[in-house]
């Protein structure tokens, strides 16, 4: 039987988008305590089922698909521009496809009026009215309000009518920056993108070693999650754990308790690092405290390979730093060479430590890819020499493998301005991620 916590999450999931949700209402409808309702609502928010909006409350929203993650909801636009909702509150959960700046003549604006979009405009009532008639939400800049006619139209069509104090340029810049951040997030792979709904092979805590071997023979899976009578994950058992097992002995005697787990919202990069750090081949995936799948090392490898083949639409800070540096390979060494750009410096005009660390990581990665064409996870980095490098300085990071084995590698990276001017030295330890 599902717990009260899970019953609340299932109830919230069944509500239509736009439905109002409150702790008191949940507690009354499902006959649970307000504390239990509050915790479940917070978890639903983390899962992307609901959103809390200022002066509106908590509302059921559509769960965003991966291909639509770059879209913003109108409620998020209100938060981004610190706006006030003047009308059309029932449409705040909807997503906007694009935004249009209403700085054109009225007869020209008509060409750009598309349903589901957002019109950013000042106190031009005719443009506001026209936009709503064509199915567009309206964001009024400059702190202006709307007429009662425009407000009534927004409420009638359930199209958000928002006002903010920023000028049109600043408003557009804030929204564009938020959309750009979403494009970066779209490129990030999560466990949820890799682990799909699957028929899980599990054992109960009161089953025996004989049951384990029977399950292995039927499924071919040697790593099996172990659940208690309530269906809660309590451990995991592998072939290594069962090497000295007795057929009638309970599985609880051999399983590894409190296994390392991830959630669907854990990034693949983070999951791979935990796998290497903990030395595990499989991690159970929990959603709402329920086992929904397992993530294997093979899943991680395939995901990382797919990430490398993806065209990057939005640039991260790391992309901005590395793109200015070219890879140079010689018979003896591997290095990256480029120029210290303003984006890589501190307010004093010298190379920032974060940018320097990124360059060291990149030099080591390029070097180790020559040794073995697999991904790496940096385990430790020790900087034992550091000098300032000014903006516009041309530098190079030279990497050399000191030692490597089946699971690890040690690399020394020297960053220099000229052959005789060393800026930084670092020793880096990494582990391979391979099948």
Automatic annotation (TrEMBL):
Pfam families in UniProt: 4HBT, CBS, DRTGG
Taxonomic superkingdom: Bacteria
SUPFAM superfamilies membership: CBS-domain pair (SSF54631), HprK N-terminal domain-like (SSF75138), Thioesterase/thiol ester dehydrase-isomerase (SSF54637), Winged helix' DNA-binding domain (SSF46785)
Designated name of the protein: DRTGG domain-containing protein
Keywords in alphabetical order: CBS domain, Repeat
Domain CBS: residue ranges: 195-253, 255-312
Keyword presence, Membrane: no
TM stretches of this protein: none
InterPro entries registered for this protein in UniProt: CBS_dom (IPR000644), CBS_dom_sf (IPR046342), CBS_domain-containing (IPR051462), DRTGG (IPR010766), HotDog_dom_sf (IPR029069), Ser_kin/Pase_Hpr-like_N_sf (IPR028979), Thioestr_dom (IPR006683), WH-like_DNA-bd_sf (IPR036388)
């Amino acid at each position: 039987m599902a717990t009260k916590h899970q019953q609340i999450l299932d109830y919230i999931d069944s509500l239509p988008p736009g439905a109002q949700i409150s702790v008191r209402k949940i507690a009354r409808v499902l006959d649970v305590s307000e504390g239990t309702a509050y915790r479940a609502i917070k978890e639903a928010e983390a899962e992307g089922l609901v959103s809390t909006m200022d002066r509106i409350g908590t509302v059921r929203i559509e769960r965003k698909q991966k291909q639509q993650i770059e879209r913003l909801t109108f409620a998020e636009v209100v938060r981004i521009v610190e706006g006030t909702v003047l009308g059309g509150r029932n449409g705040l959960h909807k997503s906007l496809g694009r935004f249009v700046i209403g700085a054109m003549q009225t007869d020209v604006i008509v060409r750009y009026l598309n349903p589901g979009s957002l019109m950013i405009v000042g106190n031009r009532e005719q443009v506001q009215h026209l936009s709503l008639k064509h199915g567009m939400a309206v964001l009024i800049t400059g702190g202006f309000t709307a007429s009662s006619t425009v407000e009534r139209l927004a409420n009638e069509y359930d199209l958000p009518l928002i006002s903010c104090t920023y000028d049109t340029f600043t408003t557009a810049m804030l929204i564009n920056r938020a959309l750009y951040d979403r494009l970066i997030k779209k490129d990030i792979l999560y466990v949820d993108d890799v682990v799909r709904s699957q028929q899980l092979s599990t054992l109960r805590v009161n089953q025996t070693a004989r049951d384990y071997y029977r399950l292995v023979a039927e499924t071919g899976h040697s790593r099996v999650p172990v659940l208690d009578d309530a269906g809660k994950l309590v451990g995991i058992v592998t072939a290594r754990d069962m090497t000295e097992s007795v057929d009638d002995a309970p599985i609880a005697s051999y399983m590894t308790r409190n296994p390392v787990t991830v959630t669907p919202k854990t990034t693949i990069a983070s999951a791979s690092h935990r796998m290497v750090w903990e030395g595990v081949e499989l991690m159970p995936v929990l959603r709402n405290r329920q086992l929904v799948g397992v993530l294997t090392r093979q899943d991680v490898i395939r995901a990382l390979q797919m990430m490398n083949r993806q065209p990057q639409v939005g640039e991260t800070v790391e992309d901005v730093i590395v793109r200015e540096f070219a890879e140079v390979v010689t018979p003896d060494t591997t290095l990256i060479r480029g120029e210290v750009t303003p984006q890589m410096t501190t307010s004093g005009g010298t190379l920032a430590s974060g940018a320097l660390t990124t360059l060291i990581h990149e030099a080591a990665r390029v070097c180790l890819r020559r040794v073995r064409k697999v991904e790496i996870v940096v385990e430790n980095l020790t900087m034992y020499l550091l000098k300032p490098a000014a903006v516009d300085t041309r530098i190079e990071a030279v990497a050399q493998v000191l030692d490597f084995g089946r699971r690890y590698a040690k690399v020394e990276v020297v960053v220099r301005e000229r052959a005789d001017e060393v800026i930084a030295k670092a020793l880096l330890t990494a582990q391979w991620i391979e099948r």
